[in-house]
Specification:
Length: 429
């Protein structure tokens, strides 16, 4: 992509409405624009990051054996009346009526819809277990939308749903999702703490929120120092170990009953990026989602749901990875891998070398943003730092005279002068 023809409306001034760094940086780097409170347009740069995160989430869900589908954003109110949630959900639900005065809603989540699909399509225990997911926009009319995409009203969520014949099956499904989440977050460059959460009377221990540590997080966390010391291997053997460690949010934490000695107890703010949940027959029972069991008896299925805040993750990753100059994207989610800076596009040698590098990098399928604009070098470096591209490759007249270019790693700030060929060898591996 050539910056001269890219849509990157960066801002010089810090937007006054943004209270936290990720919101400021997303606005300043031209990733998003607010349409109305808690509702955003994703501009090209932000959209790339959103798609990258979505891609990693998708790969790990597929690898865990979940099947992707797509449910609509608009749902009929009747289904929510069946589960009893139409009235319970209150003002957070955006209610709509169509031209025939039929009551509809913009989905805040999809348990009812998926249970309806299941009960109409699945008849036998032999078809179980089933795990389905989709990545779709949700709407929750939050009282206080804030922090940009972190607490939006419209937001992108991956939500998966599991169906099993009995509790043991449901627990296996739950643990498989637990592992998939560890893998997903570790690929996103994040270290998460699985915090045990309330799952209602039936759920027992089977509910975890995945929290990342960040000063601006909305949750107050208390957790065992062991979380900081152990390697977070996303393996099935590791699930038991992680689930046995103490971690709680402030509403659950009770100092007098905490099993962790004071000197081993850590406190921090956390951002909830995912939530997994076993809820038994909470929806299957009222909605009549049954299959014929091995003995032919109708059996109500056991369900779980598994959410990841895809759009919230964009902000959360920035909260965890930035400096004074701007965003520092982890390689896996970076909108471009390389920012190619041409210090003097009007100079023939620079133009040729820049174009050649741009073509050769693009040819091998690496995403490169080529700054081919006539601009001051300072402004070019500042833009690349702000938008957080992991590698900066700079071509200038002085270097070219001796056959070198400059390679900078955004995360460490380390710069090196190298020949064009060795720069390419380093970047194209
Ligand atoms: P929270 O406690 O932050 O309000 P929740 O518990 O209501 O979230 P879930 O129903 O568990 O959220 O949704 C799954 C995931 O969707 C959450 O873990 C979070 O990452 C994301 N999410 C929820 N609400 C929002 C929102 N308003 N804006 C952006 N992401 C959200
Ligand atoms: Mg939650």
């Amino acid at each position: 992509m050539r910056l001269s023809s890219y849509f990157l409306p960066t801002l010089k001034e810090t937007p006054a409405e943004a209270q936290i760094v990720s919101h400021r940086l997303m606005l300043r780097s031209g990733m998003i624009r607010q349409a109305s409170a808690g509702i955003y347009s994703w501009l090209p740069l932000g959209h790339r990051v959103l798609r990258r995160i979505e891609g990693i989430v998708r790969e790990e869900m597929d690898a865990a054996g979940s099947s992707e589908m797509l449910m609509p954003t608009i749902q009929p109110a009747e289904l929510w009346r069946e589960s009893g949630r139409y009235d319970d959900y209150g003002k957070e639900m955006l209610r709509i009526s169509d031209r025939h005065e039929r009551e509809m809603l913009y989905g805040p989540t999809n348990e009812e819809l998926i249970t309806d699909i299941f009960r109409n399509c699945v008849k036998s225990y032999r078809d179980l277990p089933i795990n389905l997911y989709h990545i779709q926009w949700k709407f929750r009319d939050e009282v206080r939308p804030r922090f940009g995409v972190m607490r939006g009203r419209e937001f992108l969520m991956k939500d998966a749903y599991s169906f099993d014949l009995d509790f043991n099956g449901a627990r296996d499904s739950y643990n498989a999702m637990f592992v998939a989440y560890l893998k997903t977050f570790s690929r996103l460059g994040l270290r998460t703490i699985p915090v045990r959460a309330e799952s209602g009377a039936i759920g027992g221990d089977l509910s975890h929120e995945f929290q990342i540590i960040a000063e601006t997080g909305e949750s107050q966390l208390y957790f065992d120092a062991t979380f900081e010391e152990i390697a977070h291997e996303p393996s099935p053997e590791f699930v038991g170990k992680l689930q046995s460690l103490y971690a709680a949010t402030d509403d659950k934490h009770d100092t007098s009953e905490c099993p962790v000695p004071t000197e081993r107890l850590r406190t921090a703010r956390g951002i909830e990026v995912g939530h997994i949940f076993y809820f038994g027959t909470k929806y299957a029972q009222p909605m009549g989602a049954k299959v014929a069991g091995a003995n032919g008896e109708p059996t109500t299925v056991e369900m779980g749901s598994y959410g990841i805040g895809v759009s919230r993750l964009v902000g959360a990753i920035i909260e965890a990875s930035h400096d004074e100059a701007g965003i520092i994207w982890p390689d896996a989610v970076a909108p471009f891998k390389i920012g190619l800076i041409n210090l003097r596009p009007s100079d023939t040698a620079c133009a040729e070398a820049g174009e050649d590098l741009y073509q050769r990098i693009s040819a091998v399928g690496i995403d490169v943003l080529y700054d081919d604009r006539e601009e001051r070098p300072g402004a070019k470096f500042a833009t690349m730092d702000l938008i957080g591209i992991p590698w900066q490759l700079t071509v200038g007249p002085r270097g070219l005279a001796t056959g070198v270019v400059e390679l900078k790693r955004r995360s460490s700030g380390e710069r090196e002068e190298v020949s064009i060929e060795s720069a390419l060898a380093r970047l194209i591996d």
